[in-house]
């Protein structure tokens, strides 16, 4: 098994988005890592999930609170194997072999491979990416010099994994209700209070924490961002205690905790009244990570379903020979590969705008924020759907922990919750449409993509017609009172993301026969008529797309 060499769709899109020199290096690196993810890392992930979950050692033998989080040795090996390949570091520093800085496209390709084996560990990687982003963009020179090299470590210095602590008991997604406080003490601050859902607690070296200074304004405007080292220079805890670890449904590899701050030494990052907005930028990055984890799980679920259908016989013939099995597998392949392309379109745009330091209120960034919200919601929901389909393909075996499918389902479910539920994302979409008019840029971008299509005239017409109808529909909703708009918010997101993916499919359709077939099938499935055919389109294309004969 090799998650990279078996994924021709990923190879094609990376070859398109990376320079020839970078691709020559990255292809070799990713093939090595894809093999590692499919074997050793996957085996370690199964052990962590079943027997090796993080454990809180609350007290030492003298009764002192040490709040130590035990991690199994296999998990630690995965940590080293992954960070030393630059999944975080090479976004912000040069790759020695190339003498040039890496990028998010390469990092997210690694994350996509990792998530097929261990999406639980991709959470700490995500948090470390967000921590690096915040320090690099907004910390002062002294903080950057002291902490950034450790967060970016590729084995050259001690690694400090990162964490971002927002959630409190009384607020949840309502971050403006946060109560954790920061008290000034000379050139630093002391943090007091509790964070209720703090992932990578005890494993991180630094945490980025939102807290409210004394006499600061209420709501999100009064929140400031602080860098909090987990330990002091003498290695004792920095005024931090872990109350307990969360007993989670899935992603058991990442230690998620209730954390208490009792005078933790902290350093202000950036402007005092901009903390929430800094964290929202990091949240957009984390939402892309969430989408990458989702398409990774989708890919693994499809691969497991396809392999099982090829090898399992029922009623005298392989499962793969049954038309309804073909239909399921073809739709899974098409959806996963087009969704992967769409996600990497967004990744490329994020990479470009971040490097250019594009103004955060520009039309380009508002469009990017809208696209991120759309793909985060859709990919997370599809990850759950795909794991359900893989379980059903396996029948009873799919429900047994000897197979990977139960773990995939448990791990996928959290992706609909992390970084914003569907309701929160629906509200985000509404804000972007009302305040920033992001739908104008969105529909303009779709028209540009559709215009690139030199094949599939009928499908092009169907998508363009649906675009026109959706544009008028959205405008009519935005004329309604806020309550009615809120009702339609998730429906808007669902309709827009299908158009987004269809336009990407059309844009890429002329690149190969397979891309043309996938675009045709996707568009006809969502926008074509449902007339009865002796051999439906999905079965006509099954031979080419799955490599099986049609019967």
Biggest sheet layout: 5 strands, mixed, barrel
Shape: globular
Helix content: 55-70%
Structural class assignment = alpha+beta
Total beta strand runs: 13
Oligomer: single chain
**How large is the share of residues in beta strands?**
5-15%
Determine Rg (CA atoms, Å).
24 Å
Low-confidence stretches: none
- Mean pLDDT, all residues: 95
In order across it, which strands form the biggest sheet? Answer: 6-7-11-9-8
Q: Separation of termini?
A: 29 Å
Counting DSSP H or I runs of 4 or more residues, the number of helices is: 18
Note the main attributes of this structure:
alpha+beta, 56% helix, five-stranded mixed barrel, two-stranded antiparallel ribbon, single chain, 18 helices, 551 residues
Describe this entry's structure for a reader.
This protein is of the alpha+beta class and 551 residues long. 56% of the residues lie in helices and 13% in strands. It is built from 18 helices and 13 strands. The protein has helices at 8-17, 20-50, 73-83, 89-92, 104-115, 119-138, 141-151, 275-311, 323-355, 363-394, 405-413, 422-435, 438-451, 457-477, 482-508, 513-527, 537-540, 542-546; strands at residues 55-59, 65-70, 94-95, 100-101, 164-165, 181-185, 188-199, 206-213, 223-229, 240-245, 256-269, 313-314, 317-318. The strands form 4 sheets. A 5-stranded mixed beta barrel has the order 6-7-11-9-8. Strands 1-2 form a two-stranded antiparallel ribbon. The chain has a two-stranded antiparallel sheet with strand order 3-4. Helix 6 (119-138) runs antiparallel to helix 8, helix 13 (438-451) runs parallel beside helix 15 and helix 15 (482-508) packs antiparallel against helix 16 (513-527). The two termini are 29 Å apart. The mean pLDDT is 95.
